[in-house]
Request: fold
Amino acid sequence: MRPTIYDVAKEAGVSIATVSNVVNNNGRVGEKTRQKVLKTMKKLDYSPSVVASALTGKKTKTIGLLIPDISNPFFADIARSIEDRGNELGFSVIICSTDNLEEKEKKYLSVLIRKSVDGIILASGVRNLTLLEELIEKKIPVALIANDIPSIPLTTVTIDDFKGGYIATKHLLSLQHTNIAIIAEHAWSNIQRINGYQQALMEENIESREEYFIKTEATIESGTKAALQLLRLEEPPSAIFACNDLLAIGVIEAARELGLDVPNDVAVVGFDNTILSRLTVPKLTSISQPIQDMGKKVFDMLLDSELTNQKTLFMPELVIRDSSGK
Amino acid sequence: MRPTIYDVAKEAGVSIATVSNVVNNNGRVGEKTRQKVLKTMKKLDYSPSVVASALTGKKTKTIGLLIPDISNPFFADIARSIEDRGNELGFSVIICSTDNLEEKEKKYLSVLIRKSVDGIILASGVRNLTLLEELIEKKIPVALIANDIPSIPLTTVTIDDFKGGYIATKHLLSLQHTNIAIIAEHAWSNIQRINGYQQALMEENIESREEYFIKTEATIESGTKAALQLLRLEEPPSAIFACNDLLAIGVIEAARELGLDVPNDVAVVGFDNTILSRLTVPKLTSISQPIQDMGKKVFDMLLDSELTNQKTLFMPELVIRDSSGK
DNA sequence: ATGAAAGCGCTAACAT
DNA sequence: ATGTTAGCGCTTTCAT
Reply:
């Protein structure tokens, strides 16, 4: 059996309160006693049980992270940034890949509650707002990253998605493109990106065309399918802004399928600047999010009740590679 | 406050023991009482505290997963497969990205112990074997996936890496290559792959040359660097077997840098068949591991003490794409 | 079939 | 400065 605080106390000839005090650096403990206890702890290889201490009202030092899919590189990056900050702070993170399925969200959430996590970070949308409201009602700290649900006041960390869409489109515009299509997924962030795209077009007095706008899922296949549809239009776009890298990769594949050259026949800009954008041929121009900073920030906001329901916005950056032209 | 078992008991007019019994489907509880309790639980939105039940000796229903880096797609896939199985079984998984740093391994391990996890799955090597031995001594279930430490009896799930190396090389051989180089990282699995490579060469009476063998880290950059070195040899290899996809991608980049055509000037075979292998140009021929099955299996073995220290071997498969020839 | 009560390992008053 | 003790929410004998 693992040694308990009693074992240490007995062996060191002190009370459990004293042991507890040295473990937690609490209160007044004589230096000699402290040393003795410390030594005994080491000798017995004692490590305090988080389970027991949590039962007395202390934190569990673990948080839950809901993401659509940990095997999606963008979300893996987010997970990593949050994990890193957690590790610095002595927190563990439980991953919950929901596949954007309401049922899984529900199940994961209830498990996290039963485990008394200290907070929950949502990197995925939430289909069932009632679930979210229940969390808030239960006073479980919640924070969102790369994601927002404007209908509820929530702690969030995002980039300025509007600006992201705007600079992506401006970039294409600066390359003399006027027929710019956009492929997006169904998410709040993407709506902002679309708005940014439209704003950029508007500033150049270019009308945004219905047929240049496709909404789909965030997968390579969907990107290919959407791009195929766009590129087979009577008047196909000369540039496509894909609202995430997976879609952009799909676009590049579609172009290859049609024997079209990227960027000369179609320019492509992605979003998120994942590792994938360095691997495509041609390399993908993309909008980057400062994920490390965002992960750190969201963790800190989650834990600091002063910051509840505040929104912090990071700035996206255009990373020019080869897919958008020379 | 969250309702406790006492609240339910009082509200339902029964004892906490009875509530406990209905929660756990234990013992003899009258059907009428059971219904009443169930209803009260729902009414109060009661969910049992895992923390409290864990303190009485029950499981925490959470395990730890040590991997080098969750943002590496291969490990993200492994994490996903384990998470999925955990979810089916009602387990949570805590991710621990160690970056292969002994210090981080140590820290994560001690945190997992303090949190009384029910088991630990290692997808990363372990630099400090003492740490591992301590886990075993503490009777914490440990299992390895895609990874082995032959010097200690351990529960493991791997593919037959020897065979993986063998079929990769055989494939290249069948394409008439005789100058086949290999790039590997420092890991037990890679040693096996190298052995398989050598066996295949031997069967064709080809001597394996010292200068065709490079050991390095598993990153794209290292792959590029290694490939550059190989391809600048007086007698450069006509084929390179990279022991993982990241290295293989590096090789492809090196070839491009040198203006060499893949597969005509250099054929390339990778390993792991990650999502990345579909994205390269040309698409990467790779050896696949049945990760979903392996994740499920390792979880089951971890929990089943009957299976302790057994080894299960899955079969690798050659996935032919474009990087190895036509 | 149901309840009373001890105990899991720890924290936090409250005593001394 | 150190010890005693009452919980925290649950499981589990042991009674009834």
About this structure: Chain A touches chain B through 50 residues (CB under 8 Å). Residues 4-6, 16-17, 20, 23-24, 26, 48-49, 51-58 of chain A lie near DNA strand C (CB under 10 Å from a C1'). The CA atoms of residues 47 and 325 of chain A lie 58 Å apart. The first strand of chain A starts at residue 62 and ends at 67.
